[in-house]
Amino acid sequence: MYHVVKKRLLATGIALLDVNAPAVAAKVEPGQFVIVRVDEQSERIPLTVMDFDREKGTITIVVQDVGYSSAIITGMNEGDAFQDFVGPLGVESEIENYGTVVCIGGGLGIAPIHPIARALKDAGNHVISVLGARSADLLILEDEMAAASSEVVIATNDGSKGVKGFVTDGLAQVLAQGHQVKAIWAIGPMIMMKAVVDYTRSLGIKTIVSMNPIMVDGTGMCGACRISVGNETKFACVDGPEFDGHLVDFDLAMKRLAFYKDEENRAKARLECNHEGGHH
Amino acid sequence: MAENVESTKKIKIPRHEMPCQEPEVRARNFEEVALGYTEETAVEEAKRCLQCKNPKCVSGCPVEVLIPEFIKKVAEGDFQEAGNVLKIKNSLPAVCGRVCPQENQCESKCILGIKGESVAIGRLERFAADFGMKTGKSEYEKPAPSGKRVAIIGAGPAGLACAGDLAKAGHAVTVLEALHVAGGVLMYGIPQFRLPKEIVQTEIENLKTMGVEILTNQVVGKITSVDELMENGYDAVFIGTGAGLPYFMDIPGENLNGVYSANEFLTRTNLMKGYKFPDYATPVKVGKNVAVLGAGNVAMDSARTALRLGAENVYIIYRRSRDEMPARKEELEHAEEEGIQFRLLTNPVAIEGDERGWVKSLTCLRYELGEPDASGRRAPIAIKGSEFDIPMDTVVVAIGQGPNPLVTTSTPGLELNKRGNIVADPETLMTSKPGVFAGGDIVTGAATVILAMGAGKKAAAGIDQYLKGK
Ligand SMILES: Cc1cc2nc3c(=O)[nH]c(=O)nc-3n(C[C@H](O)[C@H](O)[C@H](O)COP(=O)(O)OP(=O)(O)OC[C@H]3O[C@@H](n4cnc5c(N)ncnc54)[C@H](O)[C@@H]3O)c2cc1C
Ligand SMILES: Cc1cc2nc3c(=O)[nH]c(=O)nc-3n(C[C@H](O)[C@H](O)[C@H](O)COP(=O)(O)OP(=O)(O)OC[C@H]3O[C@@H](n4cnc5c(N)ncnc54)[C@H](O)[C@@H]3O)c2cc1C
Ligand code: SF4
Ligand code: SF4
Ligand code: FES
Asked: From the centroid of its chain, how far is CA B401?
């Protein structure tokens, strides 16, 4: 069993969990993910690794309550355990000394960008992190990102902190300062990643995105996670999850995320029903 | 002379039918279709066997099950012993009795089949194995430990059969499986209504009783590698990772919502129990009209699963004619009885979608059979201008699977053929890396349960030999 050894609420509906999984912690690298299953009835849920401690044997995940399964996971407490926890999955980030790089994390995407920023900094890069959130109270992992980066720029949609606007506005500010940016990592909602690559395409700056399509096995067996990259079909779980953002067909990827909308709503409604039942 | 009279009489006894759920009923549930022989029927059927001195049937079985011997025990009513006899050659008889393509294997060679109907070897095998399982008696004496450790990658029929034989030889065996349950295709691919998962799990429990350690959630190539296993104290490694990479057709529209690989469709339904959604949290979706592309076992399983999930029209779309359909005969018949519609000599050329990215229809081309080629097979030829559309909500692509590269690409020095399958010595199943063996679908390409099992056993013998020489 894979126990939750520490839990911290980062914002409303966003939980950070340290999970005991020594074998995974021994091998994982930035950019990789795990798949978890809470119990026998559960789905297999892919989650990016936010941090890892090889000595303690823990993997840190950050989960946002967006539906049935993620609500169950964010509701887990210290001492609770996952029945299954498989990883590391996917290809690790290509870490080398590029010079100056920008790491963009939008919303929950700040969690997966964290180990990448840290590894890039450790490799000698000047890492400028651009963090985005709808408002200041939804901004997560600010301290951790400050430690993992050389500089941090914050953008909030409502202007409650940092630049008012989107991460692309934060990025524009960085570029306006004259930095010679060699590569960009952008992780966040699909719509955000699409906006970033549309912006950087004309500038000719290499931009890596991390794709989060619907997955089942995470080993290249089912093909659920297929996306189109440079007009070629790729399986995000084994070929990615990181891809050259300028080649990704985001419109297709966004449509595919809606495959189970009806079923997701049914499952969520049921969870809410059960909760109400519990109060009586 | 007397024997001849006897056999002439026996040829005249018709083969006993398998009792099944009624087609209209079973097409809407996930319970097992075939119900199994009663004791009386089993004895009657077993008595049809001529107990040949030189049994041809055995040569048709890839693992050479002691067919007349086990059937004799059934005929005598000693069902327990029949099961024991089966287990000598076949560690998964309850599985093979259900899923072997018997008509091409043991039963195709049965002498009774020449003039009449062959003995129902598969059905008898299932009966005897199920009996043994019910009584739960399986004798097993722990052998003296050899002091050697073997790692097995993949818990499909190849890996499990290899594990069983190695444990019997006294070696310490650890099986590493990527998914959260062991069983391979038996768990994630072949549906509940054809192979109840409880049976597979009982067989796996037996292996555990024999001391085999099974670790799930271990993706080799990621959490560890073949080389690391060898460095970390394993004396030999067996790779049985199967053919789990789904092929697509490379036609326009294949990434639309509503298009599944058969692997995804069946995994959601079987492994994740999507047919029990929302009690089980993994959804699986079928529309009113479902097209399954392909005509093998995987295609039949997908089509019949779609029907059970509530589809109204399910089509098998296949470029060749009925005679070429590679599925087991029984599955074809069952599919037809249940109302699966066959669109033969028809090939999909494109999947059309709506503006929201969902499947709307399937465009197909009609084919006709041309002149026989050198092999005598009549090749299908496209009829020009014969395109037509069928309205469709769901498309399941079941045209085959290839080798998954996770293990092979993370193992330097492992020789592969041009299709990406592992090359292994035909006698010992040792690969180009000393101490590393491989068998099952990862070597042969997608084949059958019994061939994979046979390979696992062969490799176990090869490994045992190798370890003795060490
Ligand atoms: C490689 C990868 C890394 C991810 N990392 C994180 C992470 O670090 N933190 C986090 O909170 N979330 C992460 N996700 C997304 C997370 O897996 C989904 O939010 C979760 O599966 C939603 O399940 P649900 O039942 O709560 O919601 P649902 O109501 O089922 O769905 C909500 C949305 O999540 C998506 N989704 C549903 N099922 C899956 C699935 N099996 N696989 C992927 N997406 C799905 C759908 O687009 C859907 O619109 C990641 C996804 C991938 C593929
Ligand atoms: C839907 C379907 C129906 C079929 N019907 C029939 C039938 O009726 N009769 C018949 O005889 N045959 C049938 N077959 C074929 C038969 O199931 C296969 O030939 C057989 O299962 C192959 O056995 P295997 O052990 O080589 O591989 P598999 O059964 O594929 O098992 C391989 C195992 O290895 C695991 N694995 C893969 N990669 C890794 C990794 N990197 N690390 C750890 N583990 C890994 C997989 O998760 C899997 O559990 C069918 C196949 C399918 C898909
Ligand atoms: S294992 Fe398969 S081929 Fe062999 S006797 Fe049994 S059913 Fe026939
Ligand atoms: S060939 Fe047929 S009749 Fe002869 S032993 Fe085998 S099953 Fe019996
Ligand atoms: S999740 Fe199944 S192939 Fe990627």
From this structure: 13
CA B184 to chain CA centroid, nearest Å: 10
The CA distance from B64 to B58, in Å, is: 5
Tell me how far apart the alpha carbons of residues A133 and A147 are, in angstroms, rounded to a whole number. 19
Size of interface A-B (CB pairs under 8 A): 113
Q: Are A270 and B278 inside 8 Å of each other by CB? A: yes
Q: What pLDDT does A277 receive?
A: 44
- Report which secondary-structure segment, H or E, holds B160: helix B157-168
Shortest CB distance from A24 goes to which of B223, B254, B281?
B223
pLDDT at A280: 37
Q: Model confidence over B31-58: pLDDT tens digits?
A: 999 999 999 999 999 999 999 999 999 9
| φ, ψ (nearest 5 deg) of residue B311 | -65, 150
pLDDT higher than 80, residue B11: no
Q: Are A219 and B219 in contact (CB under 8 A)?
A: yes
Strands (E), B36-162: 149-153
Q: Please tell me the distance from the alpha carbon of residue B134 to that of residue B119, in angstroms, as a whole number.
A: 24
pLDDT of B462 strictly over 60: yes
Cα–Cα distance for residue pair B403/B408, rounded to 1 Å: 9
Backbone angles phi, psi at A78, to 5 degrees: -55, 135
Name the helix (H) or strand (E) containing A220.
none
pLDDT tens digits, B326-370: 898 888 999 999 999 999 999 999 999 998 899 999 999 999 988
Considering only CA atoms, which of B334, B333, B330, B296 is closest in space to residue B316?
B296
Distance in angstroms (rounded) separating the CA atoms of residues B131 and B39: 9
**Between β-strands B346-353 and B341-343, what pairing exists: parallel, antiparallel or unpaired?**
unpaired
- Tens of pLDDT, residue by residue over B399-420, are 999 999 999 999 999 999 999 9
B406 and chain A: CB distance < 8 Å anywhere?
A: yes
Q: If you average pLDDT over residues B214-237, what whole number do you get?
A: 95
Facing B223 at nearest CB: one of A88, A217, A263: A88
Structure tokens that stand for A225 in this block: 């996670």
Q: How far apart are the first and last CA of chain A?
A: 33
- At a CB cut-off of 8 Å and minimum separation 6, what does A186 contact? A104, A106, A109, A167, A192, A193, A196, A197, A207, A208, A209, A245
Shortest distance between the Cα of B263 and any Cα of chain A, in A, equals: 5
A223, B261 in Cβ contact below 8 A? yes
Local confidence band at B260 (pLDDT 50, 70, 90 cut-offs): very high
Longest alpha-carbon distance in chain B: 77
In this prediction, residue B370 carries a pLDDT of 84
Residue owning the nearest CA to atom 9 of ligand 2: B99
Torsion angle of C-alpha atoms B139, B144, B146, B147, degrees rounded to 10: 110
Question: How far is it, in rounded angstroms, from Cα B77 to Cα A56?
Answer: 60
3-state secondary structure of B212: coil
Per-residue confidence band for A159, with pLDDT thresholds at 50, 70 and 90: confident
The answer, for A68 touching chain B at a CB cutoff of 8 Å, is: yes
Nearest partner of B187 among B202, B206, B209, judged by Cα: B202
- For B73-94, the pLDDT digits (tens) are 999 999 999 999 998 888 889 9
Give yes or no for a contact between B415 and B423, defined as CB atoms under 8 angstroms apart.
yes
- Compute the distance between CA of residue B164 and CA of residue B211 in angstroms, rounded to an integer: 9
Provide the mean pLDDT of chain A: 92
Q: Which of B102, B107, B328 to mutate to test the pocket of ligand 3 (most atoms within 8 A of CB)?
A: B102
A214 lines ligand 5 (CB under 6 A): no
Residues A235, A219: Cα–Cα separation, whole Å: 9
Q: Which of B174, B176, B177, B180 to mutate to test the interface with A (most CBs of A within 10 A)?
A: B180
